[in-house]
Recover the amino acids of this structure.
């Protein structure tokens, strides 16, 4: 039965996990986007308000990730009514925290909630992907952990090709977002078109080690495996100033690894206790403040549930 | 305390497991090489006899994988005595069943046994690798499962970079070795020097899915993941006649996947019960017999223990 209004939250996500470029991701407890939907008699989606985007996101529902995802849900169930969305952006845009994925997933989940949950989570995947596709292309590496929660492996873009991995106990993250802009398109353009076969073997070895470590619940080994990427991060490092120094400071503060979150500029430090995450976040933020760049920081664990109705 | 004689068995191994080129391998229950060592007063290694190699292996202990591995063990412990080896080859040469690795591992293990087990299994790794290096280069993908048993992931060539993965229950293998020669050097030469980045991502996804399936104990998913290789097997398929037909027949007989074992020509079919493995081995062998090529067949499960002293 349709409701008159509903609200959904979708979390920030860290894609890639270093060596797992385009296939691995995790959901972060804490930060995320919240969308409120109200039932309207007019079919289709309108965007009533967007808060927290500094006016940067399109208000046209056909060009907005959340609007596209919500409209896809309405269409999938042949809804006769429509909805008006109020979007609260809790995540900075183009930051490497899966901001567009969070809006797309929240849009799909809130639309489904408003209509009385006619669709399963697996069915919502496709509609959330449609929203994401409008911004960054048809990728599941942020959408999957945002929708399903935990740590996800996506070897395709259908629900049958996405699996949830166990979450190692004691895994704590520090996320530092320097105040610079890294466009996803540019971050993709700097990647090599080809890699040597030996490099491919090393990358598969690193990913295999990472999945093994995740199943073993071994945070230290997980962190070491994440840092074995020799393809993507080396190509992108120059887009993020002071990254080598940030890694050094993170490790001094107790972090076990530091990688680029998604396409950056957010840096994700892996820790095995909360204090180390806090100290790491402080130390790396201070580095960017001292450099006149500035940075936001977040600390958190992995969100097991994925996006949820509030 | 040194013994007057000792005997060791080292199993056949399947390297690569399809998509896990150069990093994954497993030990097979049943077939393998057996080496007997007798203590001699003269330092160093002599090879007394090799049975089952049709006279093809070098009798010079400095050029023989087992001789090199055994001599490396003698040297590592500064042994004042020597040993004479009698090598029973249970595995065909250059067949993709890890024949040289089995001899190297058996040589290291029997030498250690003869000397009263002064070295740990981790220490034997290095010496077995020295033996293998004489034939196929410094690779651990056959040595690791042969020495440690089970399914192994090698992300380097030291004991700290090799991990054992769980063995899914119900995993049965059919190994069919057509009577053709595929030299490892040639099988390596046909590989592409570079791969597109997209292909690397797909290969990492396939490996991640395979490790996940192994941990889930899901033989069907494991088999599906093994067959996702788009780099190595496509480049090598032309070296193994009738491979597409062999795969078709294997699946008709109940196999879930068929991949090239190591550098070939042995084909490894993955099954979830013993009957399917037997039927698959018969069907694929018949294919090669009908084609006038002929083939040997073996069926078995994964050997958990690795090489052992008899």
């Amino acid at each position: 039965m349709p409701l008159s209004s509903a609200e959904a939250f979708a979390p920030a996500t860290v894609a890639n996990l270093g060596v797992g470029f385009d296939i691995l991701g995790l959901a972060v407890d804490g930060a995320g986007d919240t969308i409120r939907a109200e039932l309207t008699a007019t079919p289709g989606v309108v965007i009533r308000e967007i808060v927290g985007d500094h006016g940067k996101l399109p208000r046209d529902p056909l060009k907005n990730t959340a609007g596209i995802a919500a409209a896809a849900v309405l269409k999938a169930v042949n809804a006769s009514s429509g909805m008006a969305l109020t979007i609260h952006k809790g995540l900075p845009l183009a930051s490497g925290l899966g901001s567009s994925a969070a809006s797309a997933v929240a849009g799909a989940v809130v639309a489904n909630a408003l209509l009385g949950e006619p669709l399963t989570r697996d069915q919502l995947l496709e509609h959330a992907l449609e929203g994401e596709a409008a911004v960054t292309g048809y990728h599941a590496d942020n959408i999957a952990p945002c929708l399903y929660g935990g740590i996800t492996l996506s070897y395709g873009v259908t629900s049958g090709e996405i699996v949830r991995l166990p979450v190692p106990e004691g895994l704590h993250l520090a996320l530092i977002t320097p105040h610079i802009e890294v466009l996803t398109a540019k971050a993709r353009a700097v990647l090599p078109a080809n890699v040597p076969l030996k490099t491919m073997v090393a990358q598969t070895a690193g990913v295999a080690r990472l999945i093994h470590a995740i199943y073993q619940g071994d945070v230290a080994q997980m962190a070491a495996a994440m840092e074995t990427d020799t393809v993507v991060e080396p190509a992108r490092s120059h887009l993020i100033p002071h990254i080598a120094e940030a890694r050094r400071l993170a490790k001094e503060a107790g972090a076990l690894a530091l990688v680029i979150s998604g396409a950056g500029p957010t840096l994700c430090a892996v820790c095995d206790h909360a204090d180390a995450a806090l100290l790491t976040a402080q130390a790396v933020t201070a580095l960017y403040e001292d450099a006149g760049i500035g940075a936001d920081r977040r600390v958190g664990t992995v969100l097991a549930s994925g996006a949820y109705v509030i």
